[in-house]
Amino acid sequence: MRDGFDCSELMDFAERLGAQPKEMLKAQKKMLRTSGTKLRRKTAQRARADVRRTAVHRPKYDRKAGDYHRSIKRGKLNKEDDTLRIRVYSSDKIGHLIEDGWTPKFRDDSCGSPQAGKKVFADAAKEFEPEFESAAEDMVDELVKKI
After folding, report:
1. What pLDDT does residue 38 have?
2. For the whole model, what pTM was predicted?
3. Neighbours of 142 (CB within 10 A)
4. Which residues contact 119 (CB under 8 A, 6 or more apart)?
5. CB 82 within 8 A of CB 99
6. Which of 15, 43, 88, 135 is 20 to 30 Å from the Cα of 99, by its Cα?
7. How far is 111 from 53, CA to CA, in rounded Å?
8. 24 vs 19: CA distance, rounded Å
């Protein structure tokens, strides 16, 4: 008879957990892609609610209505400092102005009052954060159950 704790099951579990890096990486990538797609949808939905579709037709500048809404995309996975990341972004040329705000310049070279940014991406990310955390917890639970 031994006194103390029996850690053999814990050590066995740790070995099996360390032997599954490919499966863990696959699950991480899949979860990030699906979460990125959900965030893109939520961001586009928020953009449709907050940002008006405006067309501009001038001799030097032509812009269709809804270009900003169509430009919201989900990027590819990238690895930076051993961390997997995915981004949701706008490929619109003036997307940064809609997001951060701008000061309009009139045709007579006078400036108007500063326009506040809509902060569509920041608000959507903040709104999506609890959903992402629960998806990450579910992924970890599934991996642990498989082992």
Report:
1. 96
2. 0.80
3. 11
4. 99
5. no
6. 135
7. 23
8. 10
Task: Please tell me what DSSP assigns to residue 59.
Answer: S
Residue with the two structure tokens 């990341």: 85
Side chain identity at residue 46, one-letter code: R
The per-residue b/e assignment along 24-37, b for 16 or more CB within 10 angstroms, e otherwise, is: beebbeebbeebbe
Q: Tokens 């919201």 — which residue?
A: 72
Distance CA 43, CA 66 (A): 14
CB hemisphere CA count around 33 (13 angstroms): 8
CA–CA separation, 120 vs 44, rounded Å?
Answer: 9
Q: Do residues 84 and 62 lie in contact, with contact meaning Cβ atoms separated by under 8 Å?
A: no
Distance CA 16, CA 68 (A): 48
Cα–Cα nearest to 35, from 130, 116, 121, 113? 130
Task: Give the pLDDT confidence of 97-131 residue by residue, as tens digits.
Answer: 999 999 999 989 899 999 999 999 999 999 999 99
